[in-house]
Amino acid sequence: MAKVQPRTLSGFMELLPSRQIQFDRMAAILRDSFSLYGFFPLDTPLIEASDVLLAKGGGETEKQIYRFMKGDSDLALRFDLTVPLAKYVALHYAELAFPFRRFQIGKVYRGERAQRGRFREFYQADIDIIGDGKLDVSNDAEIPAIIYRTFTALGLRRFQIRVNNRKILNGFYAMHDLTRQSTAIMRTVDKLEKIGEKSVRDLLTAPEIGLTEQQAGEILRFIDIKGSNEEVLASLEQYRGRNPMFDEGLDELTMVARHLAAFGVPQDHFALDLTIARGLDYYTGTVYETTMLDHPEIGSICSGGRFDNLAEYYTDRQLPGVGISIGLTRLFFVLEDQGYLNDQLNTAPADALILPMTEDMGPAISLATALRTAGVRTQIYGEPKKFKQKMTYADKLAVPYVIILGEDEVRDNAASVKNMRTGEQVKLTMDQVAAHIQKGLAPLNEGTPILDKGE
Amino acid sequence: MAKVQPRTLSGFMELLPSRQIQFDRMAAILRDSFSLYGFFPLDTPLIEASDVLLAKGGGETEKQIYRFMKGDSDLALRFDLTVPLAKYVALHYAELAFPFRRFQIGKVYRGERAQRGRFREFYQADIDIIGDGKLDVSNDAEIPAIIYRTFTALGLRRFQIRVNNRKILNGFYAMHDLTRQSTAIMRTVDKLEKIGEKSVRDLLTAPEIGLTEQQAGEILRFIDIKGSNEEVLASLEQYRGRNPMFDEGLDELTMVARHLAAFGVPQDHFALDLTIARGLDYYTGTVYETTMLDHPEIGSICSGGRFDNLAEYYTDRQLPGVGISIGLTRLFFVLEDQGYLNDQLNTAPADALILPMTEDMGPAISLATALRTAGVRTQIYGEPKKFKQKMTYADKLAVPYVIILGEDEVRDNAASVKNMRTGEQVKLTMDQVAAHIQKGLAPLNEGTPILDKGE
């Protein structure tokens, strides 16, 4: 028969089994962490009507989207989890309680040019808190705690959550009569780390934006405000009273910073950073980025912010919110690439592999049933192969324990249990096996999926 | 601004938050159950090249598939999890250890005519064991154990796993010189429960199949063999020695039945049933169906079987396997529809909702951080609303515990903790709160997502 070449599309991540276990463990940690903060899980269709998905329209989105006809229906694959959330909240408004907190971990699709580390299908992990009419700024203050707990639970240590407030920036621009140019200025300032101060100054004074040298200098001085959180807030207080929006933003930023300790976020994992603007018009208040201190070149691994109006394309209701997003597929790629994955963790599909060495599989099956009932993930190797081949299989799966049931063992109602990491083998009665294995497994399952060797 | 009507496509399940929690709990139980049997988790792209996905080609599949062009690429959404598995195993063959056991819980797409309880996007939960060249029949014997443990863990009680072997059927047809018509006969016999014996007899003797009355009688007598597993096997033994394929099938079926008790499957949850054929040419040996005893009209909720050649369209390697599939979205729909979902289970997004009643949120935040560190899912209600509105929110979420932090409590470094189910309210010191709540939560989280009221 003529064969079709089996292949996976480029830009689509498809992991080998033990890597998949690592990925799944990371996703499970995200779920558990988000759940600790009272977020509902949500799952929305991958396909939506194109007019719903593209209600906002325009720009890169429309070019990258996977869009197609099915019968008479103009359909598209979601390109983020925010638009489906907006649709969901507008559609199910009457049945939801606000603030509505939801997390969603799901695949999204963007037909980007394929290149290393760029994916066309990728998981996003989003959390959002949506208010009805209003949403208290204390929600903004909680977000860094969620980021901190989540990445710490994954095992990351050398990271920093950087926070700013768009109202401070907008208010500052208004003070200097630069409101008209503020979006262009923020887009430019956002590039500071990438292109440097000199290039930013040149862009700001170039004809497209057209600032004077003095105005550019004011802006660069402003966003150069640095120091501890208290020092930054003190510097900002010197601008107070000149613009109401600025003052509001400063109040919000102060509130976010004030409760950090109570939220359990150490000072050294948090920075007020006036260079953070997020190049999206969408955000209106607090904005967040998260960077790996040893890999600034990767950019932000968790970003988001406060927005005024989640669902304006679907409803007249004012639905403000605050949220963050983790690009999980890209993060996993980067972590693997940079050697951050903890390969010491148990990634075997089973904790114990039973090797029946007698014709009758009965004893092996009974033992497997007992182990599974005790919660030990157990596989029986039922193929009639030589002992050596059975052990090769055990090695390939990296199972922590092999259980040998030969004639002697069956006669004695016993099992020989071999710890595959230490090589130690003991003969135990059947009812001792589960406890023995569980004791040995505990340390193997203790670690985090990320091993951050930074200090 | 002109609004786009927010809507979800018909045939796409989109759950409200507390239903989503129930669905997710079911999916988590499937994952845990499959993992106990040593299956790797797998996640493959939703989009594949159309020629890869349609390698087998033909039939209903091609009509129902979501297929589209993106640039020059002819792409399609997967319509099951078996074809992607075949591709995966053929593609990654060299990096896998065999038998390769994997489970996958993921969405698949079929552009079926929309009708109640039929979905165009739905979750399948599949497990498969793939051998390299050969796969021992002991794997077939394990499958009923997995089905039994999984549905029992979900809370289902009144169900039956029905097993047959295609070799027995094919061998029987060969004995009666009916091999040429066997596929047509099996397709017809498969409808026995739906259309009754009379209609099956009519179809068998109609010109398309063309059996004699006597042949039709032989077949109906054969598939009418009933009784305990031992009785069925004894009846089948009477046909032994007349056809090698029949004898092989009988050996396999006997092996599957023999180890049931050791695998922990009660006799009353298992039946050898010669009417089961699975209307797919794909299966070559053991076949499985699972029915809800009180709802036979729903049909099989978990089906599968043994196949000879997983990936023949991609590779010359012989890759036999055995597997089952659960249509999770449809099952969830049916369970909800029939009142099987356990609404007593805790479906709140948080175990505790803290209501700060003072200006300073500090104490509320500190308590929330402590509770989360102790593993209690905690939400702070930060909106400046009246007490009554806060309690209404708590009721809507159905949170088990509300924690009130008023001036008195803050002064005394205490918290008033209200059990929302019993109405009982106690004032506790801050460090007593976590343990108090955890103790009360335990029974709420003990139940299964399905409440099977059948006896």
How would you briefly describe this protein structure?
2 copies of one chain form a homodimer. With 455 residues, chain A is α+β, with helices and mostly antiparallel strands.
Characterization of this structure:
Two copies of one chain form a homodimer. With 455 residues, the first copy, chain A, is an alpha+beta fold. Chain A has three domains: 14-130 and 308-341, BirA Bifunctional Protein, domain 2; 160-295, BirA Bifunctional Protein, domain 2 (2-Layer Sandwich), CATH 3.30.930.10; 352-444, Anticodon-binding domain (Rossmann fold, 3-Layer(aba) Sandwich). Helix content of chain A is 38%, strand content 20%. Chain A contains 17 helices and 16 strands. In chain A, the strands form three sheets. Chain A has an eight-stranded mixed beta sheet. In chain A, helix 1 (17-36) runs antiparallel to helix 5, helix 5 packs across helix 12 (244-258) and helix 6 (166-175) packs antiparallel against helix 12. The mean pLDDT of chain A is 94. Chains A and B meet through helix 1, strand 1, strand 2, strand 3 and helix 4 of A and helix 1, strand 1, strand 2, strand 3 and helix 4 of B.
